[in-house]
Amino acid sequence: MAVRHRVRPQLERGISLISRILKNIDYPLVAVTAALLLFSLINIGSATLEFSDSSMEKIQSLNILFRLLHLDYQFVIKQFGWIIMGIIAAAVLIYIDYEDMSRYSRQLYVINLAMLMAVVFIGHTALGAQRWIHIGPFSFQPSEFSKLIIIITFADFLAKRQGRLGSFRELIPCFIYIGVPTLLILKQPDLGTSLVFVAIMFGMLFVAGARPSVLVGIIGLGLVMALSLYGVHHYLHKPDMELQKKIAYVNKALTGSDWYLRNDPDIMAELKEKGLNTSPQSLNKYLEELKKEEEPIKKRHEKFHKLTLKEYQMSRLTTFVDPESDLLGSGYHVWQSRIAIGSGGLTGKGLLGGTQSHYTFLPIRHTDFIFSVVGEEYGFIGCILVLIMYFILLFRGVRIITLARDVYGTLLAAGIVSLFAFHIIVNVAMTAGVAPVTGIPLPLFSYGGSNMMMNLAALGVLMNVYIRRQKLIF
Q1: Angle, to 10 degrees, between the axis of helix 265-273 and the axis of helix 212-254?
Q2: Closest Cα partner for 237 from 296, 287, 292, 311?
Q3: CB 445 within 8 A of CB 370
Q4: Which of 80, 168, 195, 224 is the most exposed place for a label (fewest CB within 10 A)?
Q5: pLDDT (tens digit per residue) in 189-218
Q6: Res 145 pLDDT > 80
Q7: How far apart are CA 385 and CA 34, in angstroms?
Q8: Cβ neighbour number for residue 144 with a 10 Å cutoff
Q9: Residues 116, 143: contact at Cβ < 8 Å?
Q10: Alpha-carbon span 431 to 309, nearest angstrom
Q11: How would residue 327 be classed by pLDDT, with cut points 50, 70 and 90?
Q12: pLDDT at position 8, please?
């Protein structure tokens, strides 16, 4: 009987708390999130299908209802399962008072570092990066969950440093705090997530009261360093590529295919200058000279990439400016994305009507380039509709920042809004070909379990701040 008397009041308090939560939820935010999730499921079901000419003609003869029945529901069901798990995580994070999270910020920070360190030692490698941890039949990407953990812990870190963020020297502990997990993520390597961490840090520092002039100065210094890095890379990369091209042309000529060699005026002039010709004996001598010349240049080039970014990362960061310079290599993704979006016109080609998508010209179209599928199948109108939904989501987030009842809640909301804003802006700009390809997914839209669950959990924390915006409510 005594146990029953203790349990009943606790149950009543729990029910009362849930009813007050439901009463104070930001329903416009819930509605726009639900709309994005529904539209994302349709687009994922479309993007993952591959058609031939005959099957494309058959699909285009069907009306919209029958086209919906032909979606790839294997991917849709998986994504729906991750959405359900994300909603459960969001519900748990809404129920827990966000102030309680700050009490465990140190433990969460250590757990975060432990997860990222585990990736270095036991992480699974795929697509040239070691980012995933496998547990039985399941796999997850710790760097995705790390984004939310760093927001929760960094908000507490900044809240305790109020009034001590005015100078560059006072910001150094903040840079170290964010820098440690960022370096572990760069080790994977995952440049995109590292940039997300930087965006979160600057967004939260700005709201925390750091001087804008100091932040702008740091960003300016970072841009100068990035441009310098590009300059050094160009200085080392160009001669290496030119020598590799010469070596390839000479090797082809030695096997009987001398068309490239004879149509390269620079090589022909160099042969003449050295007193050589296109005979096998002369070409072998020329080839030996080229290889000796290439060795120190190649070593310097490889050492540069070992100390900075990988070759493919540098290529992605630079070829978006001129993707036509390497259409079959690093410029391929951007070029195909531009074609897909441009071919959609005003109203698009309709559901399952995207030729770039379904003929598989557009790569990774259900993850990083899902917005390109929207552009191709729903056109300019579809893109604007998606952007309006994201604008509403960010607007509600900014509103929650202004309504938060304390500094910690304000910083939590600021970190989550910074997270979503950076993801949205970079992904859309990337697919439109005006930003480098960094592998940053479109939140609540791209296919992927870890990212989807993290996004919904982050919205749960944001909703938590909104629900408890007034001290009188709880």
Answers
A1: 70
A2: 311
A3: yes
A4: 224
A5: 788 889 999 999 999 999 999 999 999 999
A6: yes
A7: 14
A8: 22
A9: yes
A10: 22
A11: low
A12: 63
> What residues have CB less than 8 Å from 185, skipping those under 6 apart?
116, 143, 146, 193, 194, 197
For residue 129, the cross-strand partners are 126
User: Could you give the CA distance from residue 45 to residue 306 in angstroms, rounded to a whole number?
Assistant: 40
Cα 98 to its chain centre, rounded Å, is: 27
Separation CA 468–CA 97 (nearest Å): 8
Let me know: does 28 contact 338? Beta carbons within 8 Å.
Answer: no
Q: Which of 406, 380, 421, 412 is nearest to 474 (CA)?
A: 406
Alpha-helical regions (H) of 308-366: 311-319, 332-343, 355-358
Q: What are the tens digits of pLDDT across the range 414-441? A: 999 999 999 999 999 989 888 888 889 9
* pLDDT tier for residue 323 given thresholds of 50, 70 and 90: low
Backbone angles phi, psi at 129, to 5 degrees: -135, 145
**Coil vs helix vs strand at 350:** coil
Give the C-alpha separation, 410 to 206, whole Å: 12
Question: Are the C-beta atoms of residues 400 and 26 closer than 8 Å to each other?
Answer: yes
User: Do the Cβ atoms of 383 and 341 come closer than 8 Å?
Assistant: yes
Closest CA to 59 of 376, 348, 51: 51
In the three-class reduction of DSSP (H, G, I as helix; E, B as strand; rest coil), residue 453 is classed as: helix
- d(C-alpha 228, C-alpha 128), whole Å: 26
Query: Is the torsion defined by CA of 232, 238, 244, 247 positive or negative?
Result: negative
Residue 86 near residue 453 (C-beta atoms within 8 A)? yes
pLDDT above 70 covers a percentage of the chain that reads 91
- Helix (H) or strand (E) holding 132, with range, is strand 129-135
**3-class DSSP state of 140:** strand
Length of the chain: 474
Which residues in 426-451 are b (16+ Cβ under 10 Å) and which e?
bbbebbbbebbbbbbbbbbbbbbbbb
Interhelix angle 407-432/449-467, nearest 10 degrees:
140
